[in-house]
């Protein structure tokens, strides 16, 4: 897809309940959700410096603003991210849980030393993971349930079939996928309706455009795009001298290393010129670009501070016309980034990259 093919302006619906956040539907069978989702991962895991009180305040600010899609994983902080969301919903104004669409990833195995094991997509494991998540979230249903990585040892039909049984039993509302390739999308969709594919998509991660996105569209599967700021790299706030703890994912991410980082931050400076011309921020430009790629795409942002959330929400009122999109493409051409989006050992687990 080229920049001129799909330019969806981001507008608030003219009728219905007034809300500062417009909504989009996830796929042809999925739920209506806020056009911007909040990913809670960095509040409990993978990025250094999470602050529980500020995380709760950010979740509350998001719910207050009309953000309904909240994404988590049972392995983010070994369940603590789910418990954080539980607390945020319990302490929010009445009706928050009913309005929220909780998306949960499972399957990533952990160990007591904070390490990661293989993924487990066996049906019995699916039921076990779901039972614990329901308990930690303090809810009787998960709105969207998905395995974080396709388990190469278990046919995807079996994993999805197990979630479909949870749907039948009322424990889960919708089935999603994560980082799955086009063939897997087809196989999964032959078993049960799939609401959305969660996958990395940003100005500097455009791998889905060739095959995965067209296949998802053909099958009526929506996209929840993560890493739209490339984990902060293209937010306009990341500085080359920032020191990262060894436990921070970015300390091992190829894009944040040495010459790659310098090159990638040069791209951000080009993008900053475009953003300044429009009077918006770099992060807003990057998020608005993802929003502009189609009504079937919902960006998840990883804000963990209220000011970052407010900045991200500002992207919803940015309209990019054809000239803006062309200027963005010139600043950050497809494939311009240096470095893979994951270290090679983790790239190997991405069904979407095979
Ligand atoms: N399915 C999957 O495989 C997968 C993988 C990764 C993530 N996810 C989901 O996607 C969500 C988002 O992913 P992500 O956190 O990696 O993506 P992101 O939104 O690209 O990056 C978030 C980071 O960018 C920095 N940032 C700077 N300005 C920001 C702004 N205005 N708004 C938000 N963040 C800003 C923050 O880092 P600092 O706070 O350190 O400055 C923040 O932690 C996650 O929370 C998770 O739910 C899914």
From TrEMBL:
Matching InterPro entries: Aldo-Keto_reductase, NAD(P)_OxRdtase_dom_sf, NADP_OxRdtase_dom
Domain (NADP-dependent oxidoreductase): residue spans on this chain: 36-331
GO CC annotation, single: cytoplasm
A Pfam family: Aldo_ket_red
A GO molecular-function annotation: oxidoreductase activity
Statement: the UniProt record of this protein carries the keyword Coiled coil: no
Name of the protein: Aldo/keto reductase
Organism: Streptomyces liangshanensis
């Amino acid at each position: 897809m080229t920049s001129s093919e799909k330019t969806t302006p981001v507008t608030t619906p003219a009728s219905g309940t007034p809300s500062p956040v417009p909504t989009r539907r996830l796929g042809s069978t999925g739920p209506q959700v806020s056009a911007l989702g909040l990913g809670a991962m960095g509040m409990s895991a993978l990025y250094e410096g999470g602050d529980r009180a500020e995380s709760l305040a950010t979740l509350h600010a998001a719910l207050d603003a009309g953000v309904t899609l909240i994404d988590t994983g049972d392995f983010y902080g070994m369940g603590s991210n789910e418990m954080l969301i539980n607390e945020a919903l319990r302490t929010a104004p009445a009706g928050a849980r009913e309005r929220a669409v909780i998306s949960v990833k499972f399957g990533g195995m952990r160990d007591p030393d904070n390490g990661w094991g293989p993924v487990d997509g066996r049906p019995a494991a699916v039921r076990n993971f779901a039972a614990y998540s329901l308990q930690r979230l303090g809810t009787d249903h998960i709105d969207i349930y998905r395995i974080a990585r396709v388990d190469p040892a278990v046919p995807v039909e079996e994993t999805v079939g197990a979630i479909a049984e949870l749907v039948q039993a009322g424990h889960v509302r919708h089935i999603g996928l994560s980082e799955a390739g086009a063939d897997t999308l087809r196989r999964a969709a032959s078993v049960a309706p799939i609401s959305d594919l969660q996958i990395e998509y940003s100005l500097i991660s455009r791998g889905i455009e060739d095959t995965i996105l067209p296949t998802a569209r053909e099958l009526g599967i929506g996209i929840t795009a993560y890493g739209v700021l490339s984990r902060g790299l293209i937010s306009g706030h990341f500085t080359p001298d920032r020191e990262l703890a060894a436990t921070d994912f970015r300390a091992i991410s190829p894009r944040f290393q040495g010459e790659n980082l310098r090159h990638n931050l040069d791209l951000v400076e080009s993008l900053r010129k475009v953003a300044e011309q429009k009077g918006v921020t770099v992060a807003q430009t990057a998020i608005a670009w993802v929003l502009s790629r189609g009504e079937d795409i919902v960006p998840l942002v990883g804000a963990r501070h209220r000011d970052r959330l407010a900045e991200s929400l500002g992207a919803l009122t940015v309209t990019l016309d054809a000239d803006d999109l062309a200027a963005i493409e010139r600043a950050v051409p497809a494939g311009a980034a240096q470095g893979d989006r994951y270290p090679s050992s983790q790239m190997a687990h991405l069904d979407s990259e095979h």
